[in-house]
Design goal:
Helices cover 34% and strands 20% of the residues. The strands form four sheets. Strands 14, 18, 19, 20, 21, 23, 24, 25, 26 and 27 form a ten-stranded mixed β-sheet that branches. Strands 10, 11, 12, 13, 15, 16, 17 and 22 form an eight-stranded mixed β-sheet that branches.
Length: 726
């Protein structure tokens, strides 16, 4: 760690002289051409200064898709990026597109800061998604499948089946598929079925009469979710390589077996994506857990937002499906391949080809937190800072495990937004409760797509004797906090962990997040106050060092931005760096515009949505926006203000309206110079990256940066080398 902080270019924050460090000495000075311009003459409400939220979201997913084309990335990882694109796109339609459609349905069209109305946005989305899906399947069919075949990994179409495979597939159909599938002929007694969100289905055109003399002409065959969508061919059938066939191919090959005596004229895959956003009335809900459970049951059958069909599906059948799902032709997408690409993810676990994956690494440990160490003693000595996935998440789990057994620990409080399916943390908390500790866990039941798991975790903890609360109705509890209270001699001591990411071991291996372990009395007292506010009732609290939403995070953020603007106007050094997942809040964007107009150099590292347009003459010409897309999902939130004290904060909150107004979030300062210097050095490494970065232009278009030195490592590779145990 000391070596890391002594690297050339590492920035040192002076305790006594704020703002003296010249973090950008080797960068061009910010433009001050507009300093003499009357800021009142510039209308910061202008639609031209803002990018649309949904379209910016879509652009991020297109940057993910670009990774699938990058030949510098290992082959199976390129396939992974292709599948992530599919998963992201599904969620985009389940949540964002469904929201736009609701506005249309209820006649509540309201333009955003960009001036665009939902109807216009939807048309643009449908057009761009159609183009993107065509490109996705081109990459799959023309690049990835042939490259995988060259590596002896084959996805066999029916035309590729030899006699031996054909015989085996027939046996598989009769043994595994036919017994669990229920074909549905359509007639007045068999209306069109309610089909589950994102499920694989087949529409069939039939000829002839069945045993009862019925002749409907159409049938639906839903594929049960119990059946694997991708089937690995046994080595005794094809001994060479890894070989796979699709469930859809098996069904197609034997579809006549579902309708004996009739002829199947057409058979085509399709899949419908539905609205999956949970809706709960804050006024009417009395039991949050029961309300969420009720909503989960109906989520699978929400209003349709997208229909995908095979490319060969004739218009009469696709029109029939569109009518049944109440969708327009714009919402139909014809695909040149499997309609359920996410199911290819299963293949990644069935192929042992490490040379086709990113090199494995072992997350590093600060010496003080190595396995078996006394974490309480380590934190007593000094604050500990972790950066996942480069450094292990296990010390956090070990800390809770130690606390569960430590007789000096009196109470444990923790927030849980998302955690892994078989959570070691939940088990450790349950053990602590069984051992007589006072355990209080704030579980957010409305963590999207994790609701069911969280309900189960709540039940486990309650059975162990822990107190479980579901946060504050109307506000998602998104803060990442863990608090211990110990009796040491006659003294009560508090310890806290604060993070930018979830208490989730699996995602800690692929998401970049900071975590702070501290015994600072003021910080820990603030954390205690926030917990009391969440679990109890009372007036607004006033933490001394923590900044928290929905109360003062937006106000404090804007105040710190304005402080930089004041410094610039006074001719003093000024700088803002913010690393975020998303930037959408209009008030914050306006403050950034004003700071740029005052001459503040502003660097924004924003992975996903960015509604601020940089580089606009006279408005945002001193603002730079980059997006880093790489092996790990950039998830940490960091705010740096050169003239604030403290200068550097980490947070669970993005600069979005939902985070600043509708969620319980915490923003915590990095008080130790050693740690703030390290984080600032990390930020500078991101800003210098030319390998994994895309830069946003004034028209909201992103351009991939090209490294001047081909041997230059990307920022994630750089951090891997610095922090991991290879």
């Amino acid at each position: 760690m000391d070596q890391l902080e002594s690297q050339p270019g590492t920035l040192v924050i002076q305790d006594s002289q704020p703002g003296v460090n010249d973090a950008s000495a080797d960068r061009p000075a910010p433009s001050i051409s507009i300093l003499g311009q009357d800021p009142e003459s510039i209308d910061l409400e202008s639609h031209d200064y803002y990018e649309n939220r949904e379209l910016s979201h879509l652009k991020f997913n297109l940057r993910v898709l670009e990774q699938a084309k990058n030949s510098d990335i290992p082959l199976l990882e390129r396939l992974t990026f292709l599948l992530i694109f599919s998963s992201n796109l599904d969620e985009f339609f389940e949540i964002r597109v469904s929201g736009l459609k609701k506005q249309l349905d209820f006649g509540r069209q309201r333009p955003g800061p960009d001036g665009k109305y939902p109807e216009t946005i939807l048309k643009t989305i449908h057009s761009e998604v159609r183009e993107a899906l065509n490109e996705q399947y081109r990459i799959l069919n023309e690049e990835l499948f042939p490259s995988l075949a060259a590596q002896n990994i084959h996805f066999l179409q029916r035309s590729d089946w030899d006699e031996k495979l054909t015989t085996w597939a027939r046996g598989y159909f009769f043994d595994e598929v036919l017994p669990v599938i229920s074909p549905l002929g359509l007639d007045p007694a068999h209306p069109f079925p309610r089909l589950v969100n994102k499920s694989l289905n087949f529409i069939l055109s039939l000829e002839g009469k069945d045993a009862f003399g019925r002749d409907s002409g159409l049938a639906i065959v839903p594929a049960p979710r119990s059946l694997p969508r991708l089937i690995k061919v046994p080595s005794e059938i094809i001994p060479d390589g890894d070989n796979f066939i699709f469930l859809s191919s098996v069904v197609h090959a034997h579809v006549d077996e579902f309708f004996p005596g009739m002829r199947v004229k057409e058979c085509h895959q399709f899949r419908v994506t539905r609205n999956s956003d949970l809706e709960m009335s804050n006024v009417e809900v009395e039991d949050v857990a029961s309300a969420v459970q009720g909503e989960l049951l109906s989520r699978r059958f929400g209003a349709a937002t997208k229909l995908e069909v095979s490319l060969a599906c004739p218009k009469n059948l696709s029109d029939f499906l569109l009518e049944r799902f109440n969708l327009s032709e714009e919402e139909l997408f014809q695909l040149d391949g499997p309609v359920n690409l996410q199911r290819l993810t299963a293949m990644l676990g069935m192929v042992e080809r490490p040379e086709l994956r990113f090199p494995k690494f072992s997350p590093g440990y600060p010496q003080a937190l190595e396995e078996g160490s006394d974490i309480f003693a380590a934190v007593d000595r000094e604050d500990q800072l972790l950066l996942h996935p480069y450094q292990s998440f296990i010390p956090i789990i070990d800390w809770v495990r130690q606390a569960a057994k430590d007789p000096t620990v009196l109470s444990i409080k923790q927030t849980l937004y998302r955690t892994n399916e078989s959570s070691e943390l939940v088990e450790a908390l349950a053990e602590a409760a069984r051992n007589g500790k006072e355990v209080t866990v704030v579980i957010e039941l409305r963590a999207r797509f994790d609701e069911e798991d969280n309900i189960n975790f709540a039940s486990i903890l309650q059975e162990a004797g822990a107190v479980v609360v579901y946060g504050v109705l109307g506000y998602k509890t998104h803060a990442k906090m863990l608090l211990f209270v110990r009796r040491v001699g006659k003294e009560l001591r508090r310890y806290a962990h604060l993070g930018t990411g979830n208490y989730h071991r699996k995602t800690s291996l692929v998401y970049t997040d900071y975590g702070l372990l501290t015994a600072d009395k003021t910080v820990c007292a603030d954390v205690h106050k926030v917990f009391q506010q969440i679990t109890g009732m009372g007036k607004k609290i006033h933490p001394k060092l923590l900044i928290h939403a929905p109360f003062n995070l937006r106000k404090s953020t804007i105040k710190m931005i304005e402080l930089e603007a004041d410094a610039a106007r006074a001719g003093k050094p000024s700088r803002i760096i913010a690393k975020l997942n998303s930037l959408t809040d209009v008030a914050v964007i306006k403050a950034l515009f004003s700071a740029s107009m005052a001459g503040v150099q502003i660097d924004l590292i924003i992975r996903g949505i960015c509604c601020l347009k940089p580089g606009l003459p006279g408005v945002s010409e001193n603002i730079r926006v980059i997006s880093v897309v790489g092996r790990f999902l950039e998830h940490s939130r960091v705010y740096y203000f050169q003239n604030s004290q403290p200068q550097l904060y980490c947070s669970s909150a993005d600069w979005m309206e939902r985070n600043l107004s509708h969620r319980i979030e915490v923003c915590f300062p990095i008080l130790k110079k050693k740690h703030s210097s390290r984080i600032l050095s990390d930020l500078e490494a991101y800003l210098d990256d030319e390998v994994q970065s895309w830069e946003m232009r004034a028209d909201a278009h992103y351009e991939r940066l090209t490294p001047q030195d081909s041997s230059q490592p990307g920022v994630q590779t750089l951090l891997l080398k610095k922090l991991t145990s290879s």
